[in-house]
From TrEMBL:
It holds the Pfam family HIT. It comes from Halomonas urumqiensis. The lineage of its organism: Bacteria, Pseudomonadati, Pseudomonadota, Gammaproteobacteria, Oceanospirillales. It comes from the Bacteria. One of its GO terms (molecular function) is catalytic activity. Residues 36-105 form the HIT domain. This is Histidine triad protein.
Length: 140
């Protein structure tokens, strides 16, 4: 089966935040939105149905808990949770807090406008905020 490795495109577009029971939690490098990516640490998996039932349930627990925490932190109007995989086949789940006043509302965030990369200070601050929230979550 091999060892887990993150797809190079995901690695280039995100910053690592922490390790959850199943997933790497990563911050998307687009400061326009509170946007996290969950990457299950299972090699060769590109679809949710390729995970065993226990991992499928764990993935949903992690996405749900992270989404709930992010909505509270950022006072979102809507939470988008999606697994697209059209560009990066490796299974990954986007958790994006949306606000009616964001750059893309009400359209999807994918392929809209130019990403606004984090500067080092803002990226570090966001990572610390997320870590503080994640520490108290029941994830499995």
């Amino acid at each position: 089966m091999g060892d887990f490795e993150i797809d190079e495109r995901l690695a280039n577009d995100t910053y690592p935040v922490t390790e959850l029971p199943l997933c790497q939690l990563r911050l998307m490098d687009d400061a326009r939105y509170p946007w996290l990516v969950l990457v299950p640490r299972r090699p060769g998996v590109s679809e949710v149905f390729e995970l065993d039932e226990q991992d499928q349930q764990q993935l949903w627990r992690e996405a749900t808990a992270i989404g709930r925490a992010m909505m509270a932190m950022f006072e979102g109007d809507k939470l988008n949770i999606a697994s697209l995989g059209n560009v990066v086949a490796q299974l990954h789940v986007h958790v994006v807090v949306r606000r009616r006043d964001d750059d893309s509302w009400p359209a999807p965030v994918w392929g809209r406008g130019e990403a606004l990369p984090y500067d080092l200070e803002a990226q570090g601050e966001m990572r610390e905020r997320i870590l503080a929230e994640v520490e108290g979550l029941e994830l499995g």
